[in-house]
Amino acid sequence: RNSLLEVVKQTVLDHLTKKCPPHVQVVGLLCQTEKKESRHELLRRVAAGGGVFENDKGLKCQIPGANLNDIANQADDLLESMETRPTIPDRKLLARLVIVREEARNMMGGGLLDERNDRGLNTLPQAEVNFLSKLVVLKPGKSVEKMISDVMHGKEEGADSTESTNAGPNSDLEPSTGTSGRV
């Protein structure tokens, strides 16, 4: 009888969860994911637009794309509502929400892609912003190394532009576009 009630409960919760906004769904998934590496992979996939994710228990689920800032803010809102109560009903959930909030904020890096820092997108040229945006959502490994290597060797995003520069023909200055840091 208890297992039947658990199945009904889980079915109802799954149905209701699908009606929630993507960032709320992701916070729920992150709270259920115990391993740090799995949570980071989940956050990377969410930031990259969603897809299929295999959790710690080997179950595959479809995850939506969501904004990391929205995820961190949602976890923060839940934390605030829990902390304002006279007694905290579930300390484990409170701890997991703190972890979710901090990991989402850390993935934003507090820098370029962190929406809390609007000036970060204005101080770098658009080519660099685009490159770093692509780089941040990738899982560390060979693909990231290749992408960085290509840029450092003047391929892909690192290729020099054929646009004329303000420096003149005899200038020793670096090119004005690409990843050189000049616009």
Automatic annotation (TrEMBL):
One of the protein's GO biological processes: regulation of DNA-templated transcription
Amino acid composition bias (Polar residues), ranges on this chain: 161-183
InterPro entries referenced in this protein's UniProt entry, alphabetically: PRDA1
GO CC aspect terms: chloroplast nucleoid
Domain of life from the UniProt record: Eukaryota
Residue ranges, annotated region (Disordered): 149-183
Basic and acidic residues biased stretches: 149-158
Matching PANTHER family: PROTEIN PEP-RELATED DEVELOPMENT ARRESTED 1, CHLOROPLASTIC
Name used for this protein in its record: Uncharacterized protein
Source organism per UniProt: Aegilops tauschii subsp. strangulata
